[in-house]
Structures are given as C-alpha cells and as structure tokens.
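Protocol step 4 of 6: structure prediction from sequence.
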Amino acid sequence: TGAARVSTPDAVKNYIAESSAAWSSRQLGRHTRLYAGDADIAIGQIKDDEHVTPGELEARYARAMDDTPDFALRYTRAIAGDGIAVTEWLRSQSLGGAKTAKMNPLVGCRGASVLAFADDGRVSREIRFCSFGVRGLPAASAEQQTSVRTELLFATDDDSDAIARAWLRAYDRVDTKALLALASDDFTFSADDERRGKKALESEVRSVAKTFSDATSTISMCIPTVRAIACLYDWRATWSGPLAGLKPNGKTGSVRTLA
C-alpha cells in the first residue's frame, strides 16, 4: 500500500512553518522543497499569467535578496479547504537596492497565493497575486520574523460560501442596498486602505460602475470558514467611462482576481 495522504491542515501548517523559516534564514532551498518537482507556479498578470518552476522562482528571489539585504516575507493568514489553501503574505524590500538601502524607504507588496496540495503534502500548483504600493514591513530579526503568528482558518462541512457569492453578485449589479446590508459598520477594503465604513463602500461601488459596465464575476472556487471566505474568480467588464484621466476604449476584458 502507498503512503497515507497528508491532511490539508497538516500540509498547510508545515508549509507556513517551513517557508517562514526559509525566508528568515535565507535558505530558500527549504521553501523550494515544499513543492513537487513538476509543480507549476502561475504569477497573476492582467493579461496572461507568467509560469515558472519552483527552481526558477527560487533563483529570482535569491537575486533580490543579494541586492537587498532587508528583503523579507511574512505570512499573515491561511484559509484552507480540502486539498487547497489561500495564504496571505507581506513582502518588502528597500527601494533602490543594497547600495542605497539606508537612504530609501521600504516598499511593500501585499500578496496571496492559491496553493493546491498533492497527497504527499507538497504543493502541486500555485497561483500568486501581489498588490504593490503598501507600506513596507518594519525591520525585524530572523527570530522576530519566525515568531509572528499566522492566523490559520480551516473550512468545515458546515461552512457556506453563500455570503461571498451574494456579495459579488450585488457588486456586479451595483446593488448598493444589498451590499450595505452585508457589510459591517466598520467595513474596510484592506489593512493598507484608509477608507472606512459603508459610505466608502457605496462610493467605491458607484465609482467603479461609472468606469466599467456590464460587469460579471465568475467564481472558480471559494473556501468558506467561520471568520473569512477566500474566492478566486474572473471579473469581466467593458471599459465605458474615464479612468485616471484616460478615455474609455469601449473594449471588454477580464481579469482573474482573489478576494
């Protein structure tokens, strides 16, 4: 008989622990070993994903670490279902490289990865997303980096993704009444966004609707837990209104995103 299947909770906990240790110790091989040899890593882009192997990604980050001594990555949360998980992470480095690190501020990237696990607990596929422009991480020693606690959330059979689906459906239809009924009074877009509350949400929805019309969200998968739901979906819309001073071209396009 073959080896027993590694449970998703065990695979996720091992991934977070080993990957965190790899980043803090700068031993990136420990991170690479968490992936199957033929694993595919897709780096999310607006048009087409960029696909790399674990070894290629390791080499890329090794070059970044050589150039920027304060390069750091920390995991903040993981939301996991059966054989799949979404990890949220923060990455930062000094702008300008090692020679000017002391004179330049830290720049950050808030990212998330969709991880599919093989039966042996290694990652067989990853889709990575990254949103630049967030504040960089404060300086921290290797010991401090590994001591940062990651919130781990695991789905159960009783959890439902109905709220997430209702949220995306209302957003597409610009149904602000339905959205506001689902939102809390202290609603926030993200930890790095200063906008707060239901009025900010309503303003954002109406602003997007003025720029993009005929919006539809097609969900690929959702991982529901009691405290949070992660959804991977394709958002399709027509550029019909001005955007940052640019005139609309009337074209319809789509982008894969994670919420």
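Step 5 (inspection) to follow. Residues 133-147 have pLDDT under 50 and may be disordered.
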